[in-house]
Amino acid sequence: MTTMNRLFSPLAAAIGATLLMGSAAADARRGDQDSAYEARQKGQVMSLREIESRVLPSARGAEYLGPEFDRARSVYRLKFRRDVQVFWVDVDARNGQVIGRSGR
Description:
The protein is α+β, with helices and mostly antiparallel strands. The chain is built from two helices and four strands.
């Protein structure tokens, strides 16, 4: 193996692993979206927009980074950042009630 191959082989492996991890994360987000959509269509949960309209005003001054949906618990986890602090607000997707906060 040439010196050039020895240098680029680990780099290529690292790039490949990073791409695969990014793809897995995208698949997980897509699964969250599909689950939330199905539950919404069945009338089991409120729409994300309704939930955001209730929660976002209480997080003034924070940057909203986005939601995750836990279908098993019917919970939206909304992620925020204020300065360098990240925090989450858990919301019952069935009724829009805040059920927990973490971080800060």
